[in-house]
Amino acid sequence: MWTTLLPTKRLTLSSRTLRLWVVGTALLALAGCASQAPIDEGGRQAGQWERQQADVEAFDTWTLVGKAGLRTPQENTSANLDWNQHPHYFRMLISGPFGGGRNVLEGREGRFSLTNSDGRFEAETPEALMEEQLGWALPVSAMPDWVRGLPGDHASYHLETDELGFPSFLQQDGWDIDYRDWEQVEGMWLPRRLVMTYGDVRITLVVNQWQASNRDS
Q: What stretch of H or E contains 63?
């Protein structure tokens, strides 16, 4: 009688131990997966934007080199941008087809000018200046914030984020801004491609280079 019970008891304990080991291993695997932050193909991870937002806000002196594509019911063209931004000064070189050649837009302490082959012109806002001289305008006053993925603090806004917590859509001043791609710059993630829409005007900005600049200007 004892000879038949002992093997059965040993088999039961062995099976129970095996089951506990399998369950424990599965739980550890699940815990490991849960501890890893979601990550996209470009390397962005969940929580990064929240951790870096203060650094992005402080990143207010930079140079951006890129290309802007303009699409309206009347035309579809593009221009190159070389943009130097400081807290109280900016200089934007616009060259190419819809720039009509070489145009230098500058602003300092509320004064704005645009210089090209026809001369030097001034207006109360950079948008009015571009509209008068070029026939179109970038939302220059708000773009220093928008191109960094930030809403401007001058007006109300609506902001949506993606599954990683990064800005994906911003609505402000009548403009819709879609953030399509990001790149890592100066230890931060900054927009690489964004699409700005106002009515039937669509501007696609592709950033080829972000670079920190000297604050002295």
A: strand 62-71
